Amino acid sequence: MYDYLVVGAGAVGMATAYHIKRLSPSSRVLVVDQHPGVGMGDTAKSAAAFRTIFTSWINRTLAKTSVGFYREVQNSGYDLGMRHVGYLFLVPRENEATMRAVAHELIKAGTPVELYDKMDIPIRTRVSEDEEAREMGLPDVSVALLVKEAGIIDPERLVRYYYEKYVEAGGEVMFGVKVESVKFSPKRPIGIPGEPFPWQDARVAGVETSAGPLEAKNVIFATGAWTEMLMDAAGFGLPIKPRKRQVFVVKASGELGDLLRAGLADREYAPMIILPRGIYVRPEPVEESFWIGVSDRRRYGFEENPEPEEELWRFGIYPVLTKYVPLFEGKTPHNAWAGHYDENVVDYQPIVDRLAEGLYVAAGTSGSGIMKADAVGRIAASLALGLEKAELHGGMVVDSAVLKKTRCFEEERLVI
Amino acid sequence: MYDYLVVGAGAVGMATAYHIKRLSPSSRVLVVDQHPGVGMGDTAKSAAAFRTIFTSWINRTLAKTSVGFYREVQNSGYDLGMRHVGYLFLVPRENEATMRAVAHELIKAGTPVELYDKMDIPIRTRVSEDEEAREMGLPDVSVALLVKEAGIIDPERLVRYYYEKYVEAGGEVMFGVKVESVKFSPKRPIGIPGEPFPWQDARVAGVETSAGPLEAKNVIFATGAWTEMLMDAAGFGLPIKPRKRQVFVVKASGELGDLLRAGLADREYAPMIILPRGIYVRPEPVEESFWIGVSDRRRYGFEENPEPEEELWRFGIYPVLTKYVPLFEGKTPHNAWAGHYDENVVDYQPIVDRLAEGLYVAAGTSGSGIMKADAVGRIAASLALGLEKAELHGGMVVDSAVLKKTRCFEEERLVI
């Protein structure tokens, strides 16, 4: 009988398990994952960038404290592959006024950002002189915002860090075991098969897995894109849906190599570049390449073995990418992969909630799970431990229920 | 080319279409439904009760104005089968304090409710003297609340009323046609197959159906339990999920007949009775019977042809029902049916929102669609017509975006 069973050994699950063990060393904690090791689900398929600068309080709080923790780990000598290359938002005219307002707010608050007027934008785009681009309806870039407290990280090292610390502290793991459902038992059994019935008070008893049942007093689902199907089947409705995501890798050779090494604001490498129409270009210095993706309005749904689609590159990304950054002309990806976002379809923020006695969920990170994993893990651990408050890295304290599904957050204005 | 195409001829869809036509008589409006007539989906499977008394503002506003409209229709001579039999909440001790607080608030506000102390509760229950009930963990009833502005209605007549008025006003309908998907077209076509691509500005062009494409400038999905699968496929995430619901019908013969005719507060028939553990007993005077259901924590999911499950009656309802109302002992349902709720899994309120240019949704009524259909229809019509405000029955004005998916409502405290 485990005290806490965490389903999912991705960034959120491992951070949660680590923080449970840290806060309650004598508890018996188990992490179960269907993969043969940690971080092999969608954590490994992340675009793995981070920033701490957002307009909404909740984004800022989760990302800033998490990234602060990662930085401390990195500075302590455990290399997480963090590089503070920055984010460069290339902003079309239609959004210029909004972006200027956001930038001025940030600058006033002392945030390290830089606003470039059209003529000073450090990445040359040719949309304004290109007739085809105009026919395609692609907007000219009229201003750019460089966000400096931002960069890239290696999610596999991050999750491995949590895993090592967790195991050191006596945490247990079970890999290659798939959790199939959550089990409840009646608080007052009456001895009739089929219990618990709808009218019986019940609490979590454990989970059914591909390797048989596991008993636990508390189960925390940190199951990302798998969350919807597991919780639907258990009768707990969450506004979290899986959505396919794809990343295409282009070698940074020739002039693209120069672009890769053209860091801004004294950084060694190019920033994460956010183009209009949801396309992003992420530097990958170790592999001398760029990772490219797009936030497309794709159907929701889960694919058992998601594969990257050449068509998305060809029709969804390439035509726009090459208009804004002509250096990519003629390039084709030499690698690509696909995974899932676990998207909160209401406010795109994670949900950490208690769904029933002994049943918790920590999911819905909506594409920013890596940069928020530490805070989400601390909140999930505190909630599962029955603490009213969660202490985030750096000492900031939030309500453990801050991410419950019925919360209300302001809308983020600085989005990809 | 239609100006407005409403998908779904249930209560919400027909109310929406009727109000569009009422507010914009010259618009060409079409209602499409897969069934051979109006109200043949989940509208016909509703428990079809109404109340106007809630603790939350939004529940009160939607139900009170809608029921006010139905009452006016009924009083004008168009029989909607409304009977103001009331709702009787039988409250277990664990909820007594909350219910007393709610009741005192309501009484202070001049709401027609009546609170019965244990000895005066007009329905005799025997839980307190029953050892088996105690072993089952069933709580004794310690107080009861009678809500008078409440009762039952015939949803098929209601939807027929809207249908007749809509057709009279020149509205068009297409039955037996299943809408399969929503179609978009690029605002600036470039003439390449596969348009619109993710980076193109697009707007609704119409729908694909089992009978071929239909063109429309605006499409409103009033698709209840079908909403999730249709909108998931279109890439629009909503916190709305289908959940099976079942109603069991028991003949009101012998002493049950006396119970049926034992109206409270001068009403002719028994009230809708809400037992502990989510079981409700609805009088059906026309058929001399009771409709019985339970809000069970059932898995989410859609069934193509949902059937009632004898097991739910036998293990989920009967053991509890007979403990609270022993008159049901030995009774078996002579009829039953199953349908779906379209449940908003966050706040159990309807969502009326604009998802893209020309694309609207009006769904998620979560089991109170009949009693809120008029207000939801007025809000959906106003939003689709581009009006900032919606005028509800009785002259109350709300923002047309009041039910957008990112709203924040207080939690309802008076629930089944």
From TrEMBL, chains A, B:
<dbReference type="GO" id="GO:0016491">
    <property type="term" value="F:oxidoreductase activity"/>
</dbReference>
<dbReference type="InterPro" id="IPR036188">
    <property type="entry name" value="FAD/NAD-bd_sf"/>
</dbReference>
<dbReference type="GO" id="GO:0005737">
    <property type="term" value="C:cytoplasm"/>
</dbReference>
<protein>
    <submittedName>
        <fullName>FAD dependent oxidoreductase</fullName>
    </submittedName>
</protein>
<dbReference type="Pfam" id="PF01266">
    <property type="entry name" value="DAO"/>
</dbReference>
<keyword id="KW-0560">Oxidoreductase</keyword>
<dbReference type="InterPro" id="IPR006076">
    <property type="entry name" value="FAD-dep_OxRdtase"/>
</dbReference>
<feature type="domain" description="FAD dependent oxidoreductase">
    <location>
        <begin position="3"/>
        <end position="383"/>
    </location>
</feature>
